[in-house]
């Protein structure tokens, strides 16, 4: 009797499976979950002297498993070297320098969070635990490991301060920089600081080392300006975690964290823009009147801006000595941050030998002002004016009551003023006068350093 074809196929498949299973059992007998576990050396001296500082722990997995490794002291204290983690079936080796997951001794107080730490000198038993990822089978192996001459003092972060905790990296001279003060108890430790941005990315902060305070301590100052001084955009406004890590040569690591808030951050940009019709800078002469005189911190009457269309043409100026050289221009803040400015206001008239100090308007780091300079000027842009008047500027009052004035982002302002020219220099007559845009104690950009130059000749009245 002939067997059905289907039965023949099933019988052949079963037979083949039995043959393969038998062959696999012959070639791969039932192995334990973990084989050949142990340290290469049972004694290490983790003191960073280059001798016996490190040993290697090796083991083999025959099946996928969750594996953990701890060290147990003579007093029963457990120190975690590896938390349970899933691993594939293969050979493994890991370096061990006596450093385990962070711990704190009973009654011990630390300035930061201990992330990695040397275990104390002593004799230990290592214990490897593996759990089969499928069957749940457990296997435990153990053996000795001894620690001697360990350099155990922690690189503890004893001081960690941030000042100010809120800063505005926009080069306006107010809270543009943050100083992070770190004091580490162990000399020689490497210290780094960074912000934690969106998605956990690290934003590094550069350090300025001041040297050791004494033989067993280290102070490091981190100076942070958001990258603006390097022409980079600062991180977006918001509150960030500031992380400081101190790590010694043995691999011990301590972490400290705080918060830093960024507001009004950004790179400031401004320029003198051309008039709607005519020249970049309008220059004209006008007779002087004593009511325009400013001095002793008082600003005299303000001159009106030029409004005659004929003044918008480019032409050399001939004017009697003692008259006023009047200018007018337009400033554009084309950045996303406000520009801090300071007086005197547009329309102020300078005497040729006066400086802003005569109007109680000293130079202010980070402030923007329009300046006028001539070839006979003894200093750079000795005559300076605010970026606008009260109609266009916005005020911000500080905690101490001081009021600061700003040109808003993405806005324009008309600035004008005058200089009374009272001296003729026969070696430079005519002389050239021009305008500039000054970011005090920061920069005068090339394209704003000599705008609208005009020849001016003085004659006796």
Keyword list:
single chain; 461 residues; mainly beta; Immunoglobulin-like; 3 domains; seven-stranded mixed β-sheet; five-stranded mixed β-sheet; 32 strands; rod-shaped
Tell me what the structure shows.
This protein is mostly beta strands. The protein has one helix at residues 5-27; strands at 34-39, 43-44, 55-61, 65-72, 78-87, 91-96, 99-101, 113-118, 122-132, 138-147, 157-163, 166-167, 178-184, 190-196, 202-205, 207-209, 218-224, 238-247, 253-262, 270-273, 282-286, 317-320, 324-333, 339-341, 349-351, 368-374, 383-385, 394-397, 403-407, 411-420, 431-439, 451-459. The chain has 3 domains: 31-147, Immunoglobulin-like, CATH 2.60.40.2550; 157-262, Immunoglobulin-like, CATH 2.60.40.3880; 270-459, Immunoglobulin-like. 5% of the residues lie in helices and 44% in strands. β16 and β17 (218-224) form a beta hairpin. It is rod-shaped and about 115 Å long.
Distance between the termini: 141 Å
Mean pLDDT: 90
Largest sheet: 7 strands, mixed
CATH class categorisation of the largest domain: Mainly Beta
Inertia-based shape: rod-shaped
Unreliable stretches (pLDDT < 50, length at least 5) are 17-28
What share of residues are in beta strands? 35-45%
Mind telling me which CATH architecture of the largest domain this is? Sandwich
The CATH topology annotation of the largest domain reads as: Immunoglobulin-like
CATH homologous superfamily caption of the largest domain: Immunoglobulins
Number of discrete helical segments: 1
* Helix share bin: under 10%
Number of strands: 32
SS-derived structural category? mainly beta
The Cα radius of gyration reads 38 Å
Count of the separate structural domains: 3
């Amino acid at each position: 009797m002939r067997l059905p074809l289907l039965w023949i196929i099933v019988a052949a498949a079963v037979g083949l499976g039995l043959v393969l299973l038998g062959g696999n059992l012959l070639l791969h007998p039932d192995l334990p979950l973990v084989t050949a576990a142990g340290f290469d050396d049972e004694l290490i001296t983790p003191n960073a002297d280059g001798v016996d500082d490190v040993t290697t722990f090796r083991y083999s997995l025959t099946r996928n498993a969750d594996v953990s490794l701890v060290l147990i002291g003579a007093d029963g204290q457990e120190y975690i070297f590896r938390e349970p983690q899933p691993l594939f079936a293969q050979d493994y080796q890991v370096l061990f320098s006596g450093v385990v997951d962070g711990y704190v001794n009973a009654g011990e107080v630390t300035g930061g969070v201990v992330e990695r730490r040397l275990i104390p000198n002593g004799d230990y038993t290592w214990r490897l635990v593996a759990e089969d990822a499928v069957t749940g089978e457990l296997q435990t192996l153990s053996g000795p490991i001894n620690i001697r001459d360990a350099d155990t003092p922690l690189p503890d972060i004893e001081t960690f301060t941030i000042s100010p905790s809120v800063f505005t990296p926009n080069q306006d001279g107010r809270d543009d920089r943050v100083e992070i003060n770190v004091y580490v108890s162990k000399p020689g430790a490497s210290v780094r600081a960074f912000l934690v941005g969106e998605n956990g990315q690290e934003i590094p902060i550069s350090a300025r080392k001041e040297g050791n305070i004494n033989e067993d301590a280290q102070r490091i100052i981190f100076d942070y300006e958001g990258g603006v001084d390097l022409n980079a955009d600062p991180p977006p406004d918001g509150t960030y975690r500031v992380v400081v890590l101190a790590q010694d040569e043995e691999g011990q690591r301590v972490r400290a964290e705080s918060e830093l808030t960024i507001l009004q951050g950004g790179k400031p940009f401004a320029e003198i823009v051309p008039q709607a019709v005519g020249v970049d800078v309008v220059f004209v002469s006008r007779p002087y009147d004593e009511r325009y005189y400013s001095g002793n911190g008082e600003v005299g009457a303000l001159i009106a801006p030029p409004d005659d269309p004929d003044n918008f043409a480019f032409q050399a100026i001939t004017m009697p000595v003692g008259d006023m050289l009047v200018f007018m221009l337009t400033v554009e803040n084309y950045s996303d941050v406000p520009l801090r400015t300071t007086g005197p206001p547009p329309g102020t008239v300078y005497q040729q030998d006066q400086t802003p100090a005569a109007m109680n308007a000293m130079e202010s780091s980070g402030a923007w002002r329009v300046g006028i300079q001539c070839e006979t000027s003894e200093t750079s842009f000795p005559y300076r004016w605010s970026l606008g008047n009260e109609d266009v500027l916005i005020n911000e009052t500080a905690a101490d009551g001081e009021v600061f004035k700003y040109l808003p982002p993405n806005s324009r302002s008309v600035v004008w003023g005058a200089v009374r020219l009272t001296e003729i220099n026969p070696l430079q007559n005519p002389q050239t006068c021009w305008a500039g845009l000054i970011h005090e104690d920061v920069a005068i950009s090339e394209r704003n350093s000599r705008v609208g130059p005009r020849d001016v000749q003085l004659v006796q009245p």
